[in-house]
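Reviewers of the previous submission asked for a worked example of the structure-prediction workflow described in the proposal, so we include one complete record here. The input consisted solely of the amino acid sequence. No template or homolog information was supplied to the procedure at any stage.
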Amino acid sequence: MSREHAVYGYDEDTGTSDEPGYTTSDLESDGSDITLVNLKRGGRCRSPITAACCCHCCYVWQFVIFMIVFPLWAKWLVTNPMPTQYWHEKYPQWPLISARHGDKLAEDSPMKYPIEMSAIPVSPDSCNYSCSSWRGYRTAEMNFRVSMTLNDSLLSKGYAHTVYPVLLASADFQDWWVVADRRHAWPSPFWRARTAKAGHSYSLVTDTCTQPPEASIQVSEQFTGTYILACVTWDPASFATLEASESFDEGQLGKLCNSVGGVCGWSCDSAIESDRLAGCTSDSTIEVTSTSIAGTEIAGANFVGNIEMRECLGGTTTGKCDTATEKFKQWTCHKCLYDPTATNDDERRLQTIPGMEPPPGLSDDTIPGIATVPTAVTPGVAPAGATKYTSLPRFKVTVSGADVPQGTTVFSQPRTFVLTSSASTAGKWRKLYKTTQGTVAPPKPLDKDGNPIAKDNEDEETNPVTDPMSKHAMSLALQNRLEIEPTWCYGMQGPLYLVGCAVNSTVYEGSFDNFEAGQQAAPPPFNDRCVAVSGRCGHACQTEQAPMANCTAGGFINQTTLLGEIEAEKNQTTPVWLFVYVLLIGFAVKVVMLCPGVFSPYPHCRRYDPYLTEALRYIVVCVPSAGENKCTVLRNVIGAIGCIPKSCKCRYHVTFVDEGHRYEQKVMFAKLGDVINAIPNFGGSSYEENVSQFFHAWVEDTKKMDLQKLKDGYKGEVQASDMEMMSGLYCLKKLKKEAGWHSMPQQALQPLEAALSTLEEDLKNQKKEKKDLHRDDLFDWEPKDRNSLALRLHYLARAKPQEDERTIKAQHVAPGTWYYKVPQNAENKDWVRLRQGAKEMVYGLEDDDPFMNNVPLRTSRGKAGGLNFVENYLSIYADKPQNLYGDERDNAPCLFSICDARHQFQTDFFHTTIPYFFTEDQDLNKYVGFTQCPQFFHEMQDKLDYLDNNNAQFFRLNCMIRNCCGGVSSCGTNGTWMIRHPEGDLVWEQEKRRVRDTDSKRKSKEYVERRTFHESCKVEDTASSLQQVLRGRRSQFINRRLSYGMAKNPVDYLAAVQRWAEGGVVLSMQTFGGCHKGVYMVWFTFIAFICFLISLIRLVNKTDMTFWIVQVGWVEQSKIDAFIDPAVSSMKQLMTGSTYWKDHPHLVNDMVVMIVQFVTWVLSLAALLFVVFLLTELLKFIQRVCGLKFPFTWPDEMRWWGRLLISMDNLTYFLWFWTAFFWIGFNYYSVIAKRSYHFSSVGMFGFMLCIQILSWGMIIASSMRYTLATSMEANEVISLSMDNIWRSTQLFYITAPLLLYSIIKGVQDYLRYQLYGEDISYWVGGDRGAMSTNLVKYWTLLLILGAISAWIYFAIEGRHHVGVASSCLIVSLIALDVLHPCTYLWVGQTKFTDAMGKELTWGQALTHSGWWERRIHNLILSPTVTGLFKWLGPAWFVMMPLLTLVMPYIGVNQAFMMVGSTTNR
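From that input alone, the workflow returned the following C-alpha cells.
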C-alpha cells in the first residue's frame, strides 16, 4: 500500500475503505461532495512563477549588483580626485583655476616666456636690505624692484579677463612662498593689456572745453545726434593738412587718417538710445571698419587699430585723467566761457616759441608785460562779446593695436585730431576743439555759479601748450607692463628662483581676499593656478654666479619645470584609508550575512498529519527553570501540554527540569497531574479531546500574562482574577459557558473543580523548601489508562550538592567535586540507581578503585547540563520494557523541544513544527537537525521595545536570510531538535581530561555522561548548532509566533546580551583552538573569508595593471597584454568621446586602470566560485548518488558552504566590536581636526543612491519573500518594521562596550576552562548584569553629552572649518539613536508617579529628583516622541542622498551604517 493510501486508509484495488462498514458507494449515496476534495488534491502543475519567486529573484539580482557596486564605490573613494577647490589644502589658500581647460592656458602659451621679467640683480648695491630687521639690525634678507611684462595672446581667447600679478620665490625649487601680489604693482594692480601689440597704446587727453558753437547752431542743439571722431596720423604731411584745415569731408579722412574711431549719440545724460543715430552702436561707439566710418564707405581708406574714448573723472579740471566707464550718453557736460578779447595776462601766457612766426593777432611790437586796464566783469554774467555754452568734459583718446608704419618719414608718436559731425552735416567733419591763435584766450570752464574756475598754484609749467606738434602728440603707454615695488622680503641673498604668475580675477572672488606675506605655496607645476607663468633665477645680490638646477645660462627658469601635467590630488590620506578599510571589513561581513539569501529555502512537508508521528520514538518538551516562581513554571507547562499533537502516535513527554531543586515546584507539578487525571473521561477518544480542549482554553487565558502580573521578581501577591486564570478555574467556567461542558454530568466535573481549587491553593502558598540536594529527585506521571493519552509528565531535579567553595568547579573528577562509581559492566538501566550513590571526592582520600569508573555527577552546572540530564533520562525511560512499542518506533529518532520557563508554547506549536522534519513526500528527513521559532514578548511592542528584547531584526531578517541555506542557529528556547542515538549506545562516554593527571603527567581519559548538548560554554545553543553544521545537518526556521514569552527586566536582558557575546568568544577560541571533528571546514571558511577581505583591500590599493599570475610565472605578460590592450584601447576611445573625459583627460588612465582591475576582480571571484561549485557538485554526486564515502567530512552542496559562512560569522562577529568605537571616535576626531579629504558631491550622490536602493531593496525582497510564504501557509504575517531596523542601529552602538567587556571576560573564562578544566557553562542570577547595565548607561550618556559638546565647539570654532557641520550632524544622529535606551535605563524604571507629582508644590518638585525623572520619562519615552524618532531614521535614509550633494561626507557615514549595523543575536 502506498503512503497516500496508508494515510487515508483507502485500498485502490478493492475500492473500499479500511474503515469497517463504509464503501465508496456508501460515501457517494450519502451525498458527500468528494469533487471539491478531488479538485484540491488534483494533479495540477505548480505555477512556475509566484510572487515569492519574484521576490527571491529580485533579491539575488540586487545582491549581485551590491557585490559589484560597493567595492567599486570604495575604489572610487580613493581613486577619484577631490574637488579642485581643495587641492593644495596643506598650504594656505590659493584658489585654483576653475574654468574649463583653465590649466592649459599657461601650458599652451605660444610665447617662450609669456611674462618677461627683469633679471635678478647680481650687485649687492642693487638690493634692498631694509625689508626686515632683528633687534634693530638689518638682516641678509632682501628684495628688489621687478619689472613684469605680459605678452600672451592666448589669454584673450581664454577665460582671463582681468589679470593680476603674483610673485613667488624659492631658494631650492621645493619650498615656495609669495613675496608680492597686486598690492605691490604699479602703475595699476593689474595688467591693462595681455599682449605686446595691445599693450603698446597711445593716449591723448583733450582740453577742458570744446570749441564754441557756430552762431547758426542753437546752444540746446549743440550735442544733439553728434559724432565725435578721433583721427590719428603718423605722417607729418597729413598732420600739416589736418592742422591747417578746420573742416574735412570723408574722402579726406580716408587719406589723412591712419586710425579712426570714436563715440556717438546724444550726450549730457541723455535718455535717447544712441543706436537711433545712423552708424552708431548701442554702446555709443561709431561703427568703424577698415574702409568705412558710421556705415559710410570711404574710397581709398585703410584704417587700422582700435580707438577708445573715455570721460575723465572731474572733467572740468586739468591734471591727471582718471577715466570712467560710462557711455557717451552718460557723460557729464559742463559750461564754458569763450572770450575773444585779449588781455595782458593773455599775451603774457600766450607767448610764441622763439624762432617761430608769431600767431596772427600778436605782432612783434605787442610786448608782453605792458599793463592794460582790464575790463570789469560781473560774476555769473558773460562779458560783452563772450560766449557761454555747454561743453563736453575732458576725455582720453586711446589708440591700440596699431603698429608704427614702415618708413623714415613718420612720427615717433602719432598725432590726433578730434573731429565732430552730426546727422544734419553727414559727411562733413570739423574740429571739436578751438585752435589757440595769437592773443585769443582759450575757452574757460565755469563752475556751478557761472564763474571761471580758478587754477591752483598757477605757474608756467601748467599753462596750456600751444605748440601744435606737442598739443596733438599722443604719449606711449605700455599697458602690458607692471613694476613690482616690494615691501616683503624675497629671502636671503644667494640662490633665488623668482617666478612671475598671472592670476585671473576669479581668484579674488568668494571668500579669498588677498595673499598673506610670505605664505607658502605648492611647488610647480603652476599652471593650475596661473594663466601665465615665467621665472628668473640666479644668485641674488652676489657677483659670483654658480650654475643652478632648472636654470639656463641666461638666468631664466626652464619653462618646462614650471609647467606640466597637473597631478590630481586624491583622497589617499591616512583617515581615508582607515575608514575605507573599515568599510571593506563591514562590507565583507555584510556579504557573509546576505550571501545565504541567494539560495532557495529547503522544501518540507506542508501540513501536519498524525501519520508523521509514527516516524518518531517520542516528543519531548523540556522546561528548564532555576529561579522562576510556580505561576511562571505552571504557565509554561500549560503551554507544553496544550500543544500536544492531535492523535499523536508516539509518546509525548513534558519534562520540568528543576535546576533549583525546589520541593514546592514538585508538589505543584504533582497537583497538575491530578488536574489532568480529573478531566472527564467518557471512553474512546473523549479523554484526549477533553484534555486538549481544556488546555487549549487554558493556554489562551494565560498566554498574555507577564512577570509583573505573576509577581515573579516583583513584590506582592497575584491578583485574584489572574490567580483564577492561572489555576484553571476561569478556564473551567468558560468551557461550561461557551464550549458545552455544562452538559457534562456534574459528578464528572466535581473532581476537576476540586483539583483546580487545590492547585490554586498551592499556587498561593509561597513557602519554599529544598530537600536532598545531593541526590536526584525524580517524579513521573502518566494517565491512569496508559493508552488513553500519549502525554507523560516528568519532574526532574538532578543532584545539586553543596561544593567546597575553595575548590574549582571542575568538569572532571577532582577534590571538592561530586562523583559516582560505575562498574565496568554497567548498563543504561543502572544509571539512575548509580547516581544515587554519589559522594564528594575528598583531597587525600581519593578513590582509585581499578574495577570502577569514577564519573562526575555534574559536568555542567548550567542549562546544558540539565538538558543532557533530561535527554539521557528519557532515552533510558523509553527503553523500559513497558515503554517499548515493539515496532520501528523503538529505533526512531525523537524530537526534543526546549521551552524556557518564561515562555509558553502555543497550541499549534507541534502542528507547525513537526512537518519541517519531513520531506514533501512525508518521509523523515535525516538532514534536518533542528527547527527554531522566533522569540516573542507580547508586552514589548515594537515602539516600546527600547532595548530590542524581541531581537526583531535577527528573527525577522537575519534568520529569514539564513534559512535559505538551512543555517539558522538555535537560540535555545523555542528550538526543537531531532536526536537519534545508535542502537545499544550507552549513557556514558569517554572524554580526555583537560587537566593532566598528577602521577602520569598526561591528560588521561575518563568517563562522563553522554552529552547531546554542548557543555563547554554558556551558549550551548550556538555550540550545538555548530556541531550540527559540521555533521552536514541543517536547520529550519519557522517564522511564526508559536511561543509567547515574558520579557526580562533591562538588567537581565543586557546581562543576557553580554552573556551571549562572552559565550561566543569562548566558543570561538574553543573551536579555532581545538581539533574537533570537522573544525577544519570552519578554518577553511574563515581563511576564505580573510582571502576575500584581502582581495578587497588589494583591489582598492592597487594602482597598476600587473597581475599576480604573471608575477608568480604562471602566465606571460605578453599574453595578458594581448588580451587586455584591445579592451583598454576601446575603453579609452569610448571615454574620450564624452565631454566629461575631454574636460578631465588626466582621469582617463586612472579610470581605465580602475575598470580593468575591477573587472579582473569580479571575473576572478566568479571563476573561483564556479570552481568551488563544480567540486562541490562532484562530491555530492560521488557521495549521494554513487554511495561512496570519504574518511573525512566535506561540504557536498553549496548551501552547506552557506551554513559554514554563518557558523564562521557566529564565531567571529565579536572581532568587529571596534568598528563602532572607530566610527564614533572618527567622527569626533573629524569635528576637531582639520579635514584633509573631500569627495565629489555628484559622484557620492550617485553611489549612495544606488547603494541605498540596493540595501533597502534586499531587505524588502527578503521580508516579502517570507511574509508571502507564511501568509499562504498559516495566514500569519510577521514582517520587519521601521522600529525593528531603528532598534538594530541602536543595538550596534549600545552593545559596543558590552562586546569589549565580553571579550575580556571570555578570554578569562577560556583560560580557566583550558588550564584548570573549570566548568564555565553556567551563570548565576544577575551575573555581571549590574556591570552590563552600568556600561550601557554611562556609555550612551557619554554619546549624548559628546554630541552636545560637538555643537558647542561648532558654534565657537568649528563653523569656520570645512566639514565640521557634517561630522556634528553624524554624532547627533548617533546620540539620537541611543537617546531612548539611555533614557529608559536611567529613568525608565522610576517609581515616582504623576499622582505623586501632583501632591508636591513647585518648589518641592523642582528640587525632587523623582519629579525630574518622571518629566524626562514622559517627555522622551512618550508615544509621540517615540513615533517621531521612529520615522526619523527612514526620513534620514531618504534625505541622505540629497544631503550628499552639499555634504558628501554624509554618504560615507550612511554606507558605514548599512554595512556595520548587523547583529547576530
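Residues 1391 and 1410 are 8 Å apart (CA to CA). We consider this example representative of the routine output the project will generate in years two and three.
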